[in-house]
Amino acid sequence: MKWVGIAVWLFSFQVMAQSVHYEVNNEQFEGYFVTPGDAAPLVILIHDWDGVTEYEIKRANMLYEAGYAVFAVDIYGAGVRPVAIADRKHHTGELYRDRQRMRDLINGGIVKAKQLGATTENAVMMGYCLGGTAVLEMARSGLPMKGFVAIHGGLGTPDDQNYKDVQAEILVQHGSADANISMQEFVMLSAAMDKDGAPNEMIVYGGAQHSFTKADNPHYDADADHKSWQRLLTFLDEKLH
């Protein structure tokens, strides 16, 4: 997938879409960067289990329209965009088993965003599905963001981790009918964050299933997607300047 040098029309705005090739620990990655200007507040976007695809590009461009710079971090590798369910589970599982690698790849993406001129000191991190899991991982690591947003992501906390080092508020958006991530896990996450004093907001969308924001899947929920997006925008407005 190539975006270098192309202009994408979104509503009445012209978005200069830039594919970004970069290295982390001598491995090749391909992210996506868009910005309305050098001083724009930044959103670090972590992809779901199929990699940086049209969905992340769509969301990045929507955030651009709202006035934000966006860097979509690649945590799979350049050219690794799995389609088969088994392949997606394989790549996701590798990252779940090696949390330090997950952290290193996301931090490497943040370094690249800074090299591109993004204001990484004025940033919120967000992610969908796998990306939501990764956002919680980075929050637990003590990453100095202005906020964290996990949308229909995995909510479990590894046995050797906690929320004591969280530096900013965590917003979690979850569907009550999610067959992959139970409401019990949602409640356990809430208790874990409260126990460690991590600021948080937990939102449940009644009847929404897993991946409720993705219009190309049978679990899409237009009402929950709209509410989720509007809360995201207000959260970004609250945290960034």
Structure description:
It is built from six helices and nine strands. By secondary structure, the protein is an alpha/beta fold. The protein has a nine-stranded mixed sheet with strand order 1-2-3-5-4-6-7-8-9, sandwiched between helices. The chain starts with 5 loop residues before the first strand and ends with a helix.
In short:
By secondary structure, the chain is α/β, with parallel strands linked by helices.
The unreliable regions are 1-15
**Count of discrete alpha- or pi-helical segments spanning 4 or more residues:** 6
Bulk shape? globular
Widest beta sheet: strand line-up: 1-2-3-5-4-6-7-8-9
Q: Mean of the pLDDT scores? A: 93
How many strand elements? 9
Q: Beta-strand level of the residues, as a percent range?
A: 25-35%
Distance between the termini: 33 Å
Content-based structural category: alpha/beta
Whole-angstrom Rg: 17 Å
What is the string of helix and strand elements?
EEEEHEHHEHEEHEH
Largest sheet, strands/sense/barrel: 9 strands, mixed
Approximate helicity band: 25-40%
Write the SSE topology.
Layout: E1 6-10, E2 13-24, E3 27-34, E4 41-46, H1 54-65, E5 69-73, H2 85-97, H3 99-115, E6 119-128, H4 130-140, E7 147-151, E8 170-175, H5 183-195, E9 200-205, H6 222-239
